[in-house]
Design a protein that fits this description.
There is one protein chain. With 252 residues, this protein is an alpha/beta fold. It has 2 domains: 146 residues, Rossmann fold (3-Layer(aba) Sandwich); 88 residues, no CATH class. Helix content is 49%, strand content 14%. It is built from 13 helices and 8 strands. The protein has an 8-stranded mixed sheet, sandwiched between helices. Strand 4, helix 4 and strand 5 form a beta-alpha-beta unit. The longest helix has 20 residues. It is globular, with a radius of gyration of 21 Å. The termini are far apart. The structure holds NADP nicotinamide-adenine-dinucleotide phosphate.
Length: 252
């Protein structure tokens, strides 16, 4: 397939890496010169092109622009009927995209994370036109959702990532304070948490609750610390709710 990237920054690069070596021809826009040049040098099938060439030469265009420049950039480009667009842009609605890339109508929005380069990335999609599945489905977890609000709620949920990493760091720092060995403390905490996720099926069958139940012996260290931190989980829900107006989600 001929695939084009508009914007060659922090998220475009790992998406190109995810698609490389699979028989596609990939055009990347001549921006972020260091990144586009690196990708073209690294992969035979990647070429650097103008935005116009990216759109005219691609069956699927993947828009990886910041929201503030997207309207100006997209509205000037020669999109055509039957062309597919995948947007990964936060804060650019489906309605706006339809207007900007007409007469192209096959539009999907998804939320990749940089680790898509290695696969295993959860990709919520709305609307689901099949493009995301076709390009990324073999190595990643495609999760079509029912509405734009449902998609946007995933932007809130992904903010959990840094909360968990921050808690891991706090625990490693505390551990190093006792052991005096920062490197081993970090290694221990990272491997401990990674170990819990190894082999998970990510099929929504309740594995998270099963793992948690297994760590719930009354009076045990896990249950004791968790009970003490109940307030933090209430704050987590409040923090997620605080994103509702910004993300256009219904109020509770
Ligand atoms: N980073 C993530 O983990 C992530 C995850 C999910 C979604 N997203 C979304 O992806 C989008 C891009 O994020 P990012 O982190 O990749 O940002 P970024 O690193 O700043 O990349 C933006 C890219 O757009 C290029 N650009 C600016 N003006 C352009 C123009 N007129 N024509 C073509 N390209 C132009 C920039 O080039 P120059 O460097 O030359 O200005 C840069 O290559 C955002 O909407 C963000 O919300 C990001």
């Amino acid at each position: 397939m001929q695939i084009g990237f508009l914007g060659t920054g922090g998220i475009a690069a790992p998406m190109v890496e995810a698609l490389a070596g699979k028989g596609h021809k990939i055009l990347v826009s001549e921006r972020s010169a260091d990144i586009s040049a690196r990708l073209a040098a690294q992969f035979d099938e990647v070429s650097v092109a103008s935005n116009e060439q990216v759109v005219s030469g691609s069956e699927v265009v993947i828009a990886c622009l910041m929201a503030d420049v997207a309207p100006k950039v997209l509205s000037d480009l020669p999109f055509r009927e039957g062309q597919k667009l995948i947007s990964v842009m936060v804060d650019v609605s489906v309605e706006t995209l339809r207007r900007l890339v007409a007469p192209a109508t096959d539009i999907s929005v998804t939320i990749p994370m940089p680790f898509i380069a290695k696969g295993g990335c959860p990709l919520p999609v709305y609307p689901d036109t099949g493009s995301v599945q076709a390009l990324f489905g073999a190595e990643n977890i495609i999760l079509p959702v029912k509405s734009e609000a449902a998609l946007n709620a995933h932007f809130a949920a992904l903010a959990l990532s840094s909360v968990i990493l921050a808690e891991m760091l706090t625990t490693a720092d505390w551990l190093a304070g006792v052991t005096g060995d920062e490197a081993k403390a970090e290694a221990y905490v990272a491997a401990l948490i990674a170990g819990y996720f190894k082999g998970m099926r990510f099929d929504g069958s309740g594995e998270v609750k099963t793992l948690l139940d297994a760590l719930s012996t009354e009076g045990g260290l896990n249950a004791t610390l968790r009970d003490r931190m109940q307030g933090a989980r209430e704050e987590l829900t409040e923090g997620l709710d605080a994103f509702r107006p910004r993300l256009g989600l219904p109020e509770v």
